[in-house]
Amino acid sequence: MKKTPRRHWRPIALFALMVFILMGFREKLQVTTVELKKENAVRLLLLSDLHATEYGENQVELIKEIESLTPDAIMIAGDLFDERRDTAPAFALVEGIVPLAPVYYVCGNHDLQFHHYHSLFSQLEERGVVVLHGKTEVLNVRDRVISVSGLIDPLSISHRELFGYRTHLENLMDLPEADTHVLLAHRPEYISLYREFPFDVVLAGHTHGGQARLPFSRRGLIAPGQGLFPSLSGGVYPYEELTLVISRGLSRFRTMPRIYNPPELVLVLL
Ligand SMILES: [Fe+2]
């Protein structure tokens, strides 16, 4: 019996569908550039939610990629470590990037799952990282003055009170003279609180891009602290007072695949 043309296309359509689905599981590192300023821009490299994932021996792949982006400063937005994994890959990354540019770090909720998390912070400082909890530093680069302030994760505050988190922000409010004020904080879901303070840019992570994303979509499936279909899952969110930039993070877990959501480094041109 003669086949209809429609049947001819079935295996091709099935093959294309399979390729489309498999492509969604690709976890190749991606670099996203966020251009907030065109001329004389400072290059801030936002790196988040590594969860001690390995990118080659001694993180060689990740370090090479970061070096190629020639950052003026590297901002780590938390969850560098993971209580389910060895700390060595996180320290290997830090040791590889400290010679490239000043490195600033704030912790995430998973960093705080270690009983000895204060010791992790000390070990980062011994390696030359600026642990930015409750501090502001000034970056003088490219004839620009940028202030960078950092918040410790609210999990460190008793009973996770938002009131306590607000106090941490208020304590940062002796901001120095600068042309741009940056806040580094793990959690983006407190954006309404951050907006009450005079920052120009907030750099965050925590969402893992919503874990699974619809192709060509800005929406993720689920994020901690926001639940299903989070409104803030990864990307650039301009508000009247400030711009929020969320990295989709760098973690790769066999048990929890990323779908249409490759791990990313974010280069913010500020
Ligand atoms: Fe995380």
Structural summary, described in words:
- This protein is of the alpha/beta class and 270 residues long.
- The protein contains six helices and 14 strands.
- It has helices at residues 5-23, 60-68, 88-97, 117-126, 162-170, 191-194; strands at residues 30-35, 43-47, 73-76, 103-105, 130-131, 136-141, 144-150, 180-184, 201-204, 222-223, 227-228, 235-238, 243-246, 264-269.
- Helix 5 links the parallel strand 7 and strand 8 (180-184).
- The radius of gyration is 20 Å and the shape is globular.
- The structure holds fe (ii) ion.
- Fe (ii) ion binds at residues 49, 51, 79, 108, 110, 206, 208, 249.
In short:
The protein is of the alpha/beta class. It has 6 helices and 14 strands. The site of fe (ii) ion has 8 residues, from loops.
**Main CATH class:** Alpha Beta
Mean pLDDT across the residues is 92
Query: Largest beta sheet: what is the strand line-up?
Result: 1-14-2-3-4-5
Strand content: 15-25%
Q: Tell how many strands the DSSP assignment holds.
A: 14
Instruction: Assign the CATH superfamily.
Output: Metallo-dependent phosphatases
Tally the structural domains. 1
Helical amount: 10-25%
Can you tell me the CATH architecture? 4-Layer Sandwich
Compressed to H and E, one letter per element, the order equals HEEHEHEHEEEHEHEEEEEE
